[in-house]
Amino acid sequence: MWWLIAAVGLGIPLVVTAMPEFGMFAVGAVAGAVTAGLGGGTVLQVLVFVAVSVALIAVVRPIANRHRGQSPQLASGIDALKGKSATVLERVDGGVGGRIKLAGEVWSARALDAGQVYEPGQQVDVVEIEGATAVVI
Questions:
Q1: Is the same domain home to 55 and 82?
Q2: Where is each NfeD-like C-terminal domain found (predicted)?
């Protein structure tokens, strides 16, 4: 019974602080309760608690840290438009710029290279979005 109380007690800081280590200790406490339920002695219960908790921390924590540092795989908003192809509607150059059709919408655009000119009907690639203007190559 004490192991289950300890598991609940360790689950509370897990929810409040969002620190996964508390959850791993809570699982260790449940493993200790299972050991007690199967008739294991106090020393065996503590050893199972420690072994399960340390094993979870040693295995799960590095995996969680590795995934925490990754950026999302799904780009949205203007980030999703970078690298897309567009069709030139009005002449696009590096100075005044022009218009392109990008993802079904008409955007103002300018060429990345100031000396480059793109004529209507040409396909261009979006390098970046600056405000409401697409920079194309």
A1: no
A2: 79-136
Residues in Cβ contact with 125 at an 8 Å cutoff, skipping those fewer than 6 apart: 83, 84, 85, 86, 136, 137
Provide CB contacts within 8 A for 19, sequence distance 6+: 13
Determine the Cα–Cα distance for residues 13 and 77; give it in Å rounded to an integer: 36
Q: Indicate whether 131 and 84 sit together in one domain.
A: yes
Number of domains into which the chain is organized:
2
Residues 14-67: pLDDT tens digits?
A: 778 878 888 889 999 999 999 999 999 999 999 999 999 999 999 988 888 888
Strands 105-111 and 92-93: unpaired
> Which domain range does residue 116 map to?
77-136
